[in-house]
User: Which sequence fits this backbone?
């Protein structure tokens, strides 16, 4: 059984790998202002992070990850391009599985670089793959950007596309929306009543902040939506075929290129996957064996919007990911106060690495 | 150690609990003055009565400080993570029925389902610059329910009482609370979402999986449960 100091020693040696790449060491505070995280993730973050408070500063969160403070720091006064590394505790509430620790050491690497996103993706992935070499782990990759492009390419109203985009990270709601827009699920009776003549009449008093104008605007939007023709069965089938892509990278690429014939909107995103594959190969990654899963990364925190990856323990399916990461260009925009920069990063869990080694 | 039975210390919940046990030949009584929270059990050996706030009974059961306790399903599931590993329902007492629901203003003619709530929340956030607020004291249950159903762009605000009034007072846009008849909701111009039922709760007798039992108390537990069920 490894001790905390073993884990810290391993964390230091992992961090050194990134420092040799020229990464600057950063040490964001453990207590983070809660409002930024709440604004980004909404209520869900409260189920994952510990919230504490005092009368002076209000709500604070125990750092659930490093990415957000590192992005904030970079956007406030970082030079370009930049590489950062960090190691330390992160804190996660655990209310479902008592075997998962609520505090563990994480080592990470974040790259902010405009020049060559494919090379940056490959760099982060390859460094982590090297650091994990010899361990019984299996990488899986994906690309949220392909899914986003496919949504944008659907022949339907901008409002429907926007609603689908908003729920890319919530597969169940996404599916329900897609089925409804495709006319595959029944329109609720209450909706039919509402859209009938005089259906929106109501004599209940207005209470609360949401105004009559806001209600009218949504009723109007629903009327418009009702007039929108359903998304064709062919398009939904194509989308489903895309979601089902789970192959080695070369096979996945050929599958994506087949789909591209009928979904031209994904062309640029597929080119990015291909460029990344080339960049990975150039760094010595065996892309012929690497799995690409179109659905991967959809249930993680909603900031990845391009490349996504995770390393899972082959022998221990009960363990969380040993390492994971991805591209989060949109997050830099949201935290950038007008600025933005392409960014990609990943984290590793030295404690889990030691656990796997001990079992070997 | 005698077998410890925790029951609500006041109000209708206490009276109904006393009645339910009484009908099964176990007399629960408060002793001493009206204000003293002491009690006794008659009609069965080796059982002692612990009077507690209904909200504290889940915690006492999970800590194993009482062997049996009467409280609502809503409180057990809200307060105890992995509740089914800590306590076991022995019998539903068929009173204290209440549904944990989500309600919105009746004037929101465009909102009847969770799907509508989600869409309205997105528009509300764009318009007002903050998330649509839902007042509740059942934070965990509500958050889990909304996450399962993929509702986003809302925030929970804490309300420990008079929750139905928060919308009128503009401290929340919607509520998640328990209701039995729905009268208070209607009086406050609120309506229940058609798919907004989070949990159906009622007063339930629970057995702690954590409380230590010796031969003595094991026997008392067996006798008591046999008599009650």
Assistant:
């Amino acid at each position: 059984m490894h001790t905390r100091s073993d884990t810290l020693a391993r964390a230091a040696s992992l961090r050194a790998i990134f420092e040799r790449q020229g990464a600057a060491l950063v040490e964001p505070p453990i207590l983070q202002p809660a409002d930024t995280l709440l604004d980004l993730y909404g209520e869900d973050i409260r189920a994952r992070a510990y919230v504490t408070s005092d009368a002076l500063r209000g709500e604070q969160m125990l750092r659930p990850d490093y990415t957000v403070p590192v992005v904030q720091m970079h956007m406030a006064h970082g030079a370009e391009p930049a590489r950062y590394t960090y190691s330390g505790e992160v804190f996660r509430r655990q209310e479902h599985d008592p075997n998962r620790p609520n505090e563990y050491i994480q080592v990470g690497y974040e790259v902010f670089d405009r020049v060559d996103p494919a090379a940056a993706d490959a760099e982060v992935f390859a460094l982590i793959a090297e650091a994990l070499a010899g361990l019984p782990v299996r990488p899986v990759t994906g690309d949220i950007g392909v899914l986003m492009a496919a949504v944008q390419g659907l022949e339907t109203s901008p409002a429907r596309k926007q609603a689908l985009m908003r729920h890319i990270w919530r597969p169940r709601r996404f599916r329900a929306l897609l089925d409804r827009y495709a006319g595959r699920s029944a329109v609720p009776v209450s909706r039919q009543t509402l859209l009938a003549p005089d259906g929106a009449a109501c004599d209940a008093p207005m209470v609360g902040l949401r105004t009559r104008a806001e209600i009218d605007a949504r009723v109007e939007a629903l009327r418009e939506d009702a007039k929108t023709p359903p998304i064709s069965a062919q398009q939904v089938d194509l989308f489903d075929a895309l979601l089902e892509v789970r192959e080695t990278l070369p096979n996945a690429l050929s599958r994506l290129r087949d789909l591209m014939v009928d979904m031209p909107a994904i062309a640029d995103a597929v080119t990015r996957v291909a460029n990344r594959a080339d960049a990975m190969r150039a760094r010595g990654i065996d892309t012929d064996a690497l799995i690409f899963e179109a659905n991967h990364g959809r249930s993680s925190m909603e900031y990845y919007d391009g490349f996504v990856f995770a390393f899972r323990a082959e022998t221990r399916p009960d363990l969380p990911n040993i390492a994971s990461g991805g591209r989060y260009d949109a997050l830099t925009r949201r935290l950038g106060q007008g600025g933005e920069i392409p960014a990609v990063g990943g984290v590793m869990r030295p404690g889990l690495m030691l656990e796997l080694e001990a079992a070997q | 150690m005698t077998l410890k039975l925790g029951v609500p210390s006041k109000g209708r919940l206490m009276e109904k609990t006393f009645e339910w046990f009484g009908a099964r030949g176990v007399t629960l009584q408060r002793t001493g003055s009206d204000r003293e929270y002491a009690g006794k059990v008659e009609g069965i050996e080796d059982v002692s009565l612990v009077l507690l706030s209904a909200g504290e009974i889940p915690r006492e059961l999970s800590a194993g400080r009482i062997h049996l306790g009467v409280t609502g399903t809503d409180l057990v599931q809200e307060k105890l993570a992995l509740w089914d590993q800590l306590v076991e329902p022995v019998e539903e007492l068929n009173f204290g029925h209440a549904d944990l629901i989500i309600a919105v203003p009746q004037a929101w003619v465009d909102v009847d389902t969770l799907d509508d709530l989600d869409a309205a929340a997105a528009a509300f956030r764009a318009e007002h610059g903050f998330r649509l607020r839902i007042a509740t004291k059942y934070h965990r249950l509500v958050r889990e329910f909304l996450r399962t159903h993929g509702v986003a762009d809302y925030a929970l605000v804490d309300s420990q009482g008079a929750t139905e009034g928060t919308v009128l007072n503009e401290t929340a846009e919607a509520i998640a609370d328990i209701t039995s008849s729905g009268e208070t909701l209607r009086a406050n111009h609120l309506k229940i979402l058609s798919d907004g039922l989070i949990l159906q709760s009622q007063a339930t007798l629970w057995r702690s999986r954590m409380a230590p039992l010796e031969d003595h108390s094991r026997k008392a537990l067996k006798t008591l449960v046999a008599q009650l069920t």
User: Anything to note?
Assistant: The helical segments of chain B are 11-22, 57-62, 73-79, 83-86, 114-128, 139-148, 183-187, 215-228. Chain B touches chain A at residues 81-82, 105-110, 112-113, 115, 118-120, 122-124, 127-128, 131-132, 139-140, 143-144, 146-156, 167-168, 170, 172-173, 188-190, 194 (CB under 8 Å). Residues 125 and 131 of chain B are 5 Å apart (CA to CA). Chain B has two domains: 3-97+202-228, 98-200.
